Amino acid sequence: MKPNKLSIILFLVWPLGAVVAFHLAYFFQPLAGLVGVALFCLLMLSRAPSSRIAFYTGIAAGMAIFGLQLAFFLGIFSIFAVFLWFVLAFWTGVFALLARTVYEKHGKYWVALLVPFLWTGLEYFRSELYPLRFAWVNAGFAFSEAPWIAAFNYIGVYGAGFILMALAAGVSVLGWKKAAPAGGALLAIFLIISNIGAPSKSGGREGGPLVVGVQMEVSSTELVVMGLERARREHPDADLFVLSEYTFFSPVPEPVKKWCKENGEYLVVGAIDWIDENKKEFYNTAFVIGPDGETVFRQVKCVPIQFFADGLPAKEQKLWESPWGRIGFCVCYDMSYSLVIDRLVRMGAQAIIVPTMDAIRWGRYQHELHARIAPVRAAEYGVPIYRLCSSGISQHVDSGGNVVASAPFPGQGEIMAGRVKLVEKGSLPLDRYLAPLCVLITAIVVIWLFVTLIRRRGGKTREQGNKG
């Protein structure tokens, strides 16, 4: 039976609600809980008049969400940004299609049982596991400023999405008379958890190294040395200085190494490590220059940005056995990927330093969106993060996910200083085990639905043959 126009019009309330709720959750921190409403609305795409409508509507909702949240892509990729929005929106369409197919063949209770796994499996896959992976604008990152952020140490960013979708699924199986008050109560809970909760407490050793970072996007060797000298005058007891990713589009200059040697200082600085003499290929690298002016440690970027000249990926990850403890390094975009940090934490990282380059021309909102990542990651692993950006928003985040110091956008020449309290040991949240399971379950559901479809089509073909 073909869907009528009225049913389609009424159905469009759900994708519209998803888009509005998601943007309110991301644009206004007190309304972060509305991301749960957005997930409920996306779940209700399973009630679409047809599978085709569910798929296309899911893509349309995804385009409206990602297109606005990632509007700065236009300034970076021009018209190609539309394709990148579509790549992200495609997975929202796949979720809607799978949910609709399960609903059609097995009913609302099977949908309610499976959608938390389907949502998390698809979100984890598109964020971590395939070549165009992109982890921003996930449901869990909406709570990056929540007072209960330390709970991410248990549930993780993907676990947050799983829980929200499970709650939404519970409401979806109720009749409309029960669903309305239950949904209202759930909405109230979502909004309350956005704003109320015990402030997270940080752990770690007392004291810790005094880390001082200087924001500089456009920098010459002379300006860098001047900036470091100014930071040293303001913080003469500093233990470690930090500069951004791509401070130099070359190897670390000798005058910078000389400054470290003359002043007996440690310096973390982003620069290029050429692979060949022709200077065609390179590694985007975070260098640690020691008090003797020599390189004592280096870490190559693990996940170069797609479609950028961002160097070759790292062949390995190691920890710097610093004078204060074991320190891991993520270079900018690396921090977006849990798989990168998982390895550092498993190796025993007691703190993480993140040299970052976010260009001023990408705009304030891009910087604000990127700044959601560090608090969540610190809370997830229970490890302090010191993130120094070329033009903000730099953040010193303690092991409880609290931002204890920051430097603004665009903030050229701004200095961020703070003592980083190294922890004895970090840990992985439970979703690091749940999310891969969800990917497996999603794959099984896809195969199951595909086999069911083939069998039904085969049965219809045989029936038609018998009639003939």
CATH class of the largest domain: Alpha Beta
- Measured distance between first and last alpha carbons: 25 Å
Helix percent reads 40-55%
**CATH arch. level architecture of the largest domain:** 4-Layer Sandwich
The CATH topology of the largest domain comes to Nitrilase/N-carbamoyl-D-aminoacid amidohydrolase
Strand order of the largest sheet: 5-4-3-2-1-12
How does the helix and strand content classify structurally?
A: alpha/beta
Which secondary structure elements does this structure contain, and how are they paired or packed?
Blueprint: H1 5-11, H2 13-27, H3 34-43, H4 51-69, H5 73-77, H6 80-106, H7 108-129, H8 152-172, H9 176-195, E1 210-214, H10 221-234, E2 240-242, H11 254-263, E3 266-274, E4 282-289, E5 295-300, E6 320-322, E7 325-329, H12 338-347, E8 351-356, H13 364-370, H14 373-381, E9 385-389, E10 394-397, E11 403-407, E12 415-419, H15 431-467
Helix pairs in contact: 2-3, 2-4, 3-8, 4-6, 6-7, 7-8, 7-15, 8-9, 8-14, 8-15
Task: Give a quick rundown of the structure.
The chain has helices spanning 5-11, 13-27, 34-43, 51-69, 73-77, 80-106, 108-129, 152-172, 176-195, 221-234, 254-263, 338-347, 364-370, 373-381, 431-467, and strands at residues 210-214, 240-242, 266-274, 282-289, 295-300, 320-322, 325-329, 351-356, 385-389, 394-397, 403-407, 415-419. By secondary structure, the protein is α/β, with parallel strands linked by helices.
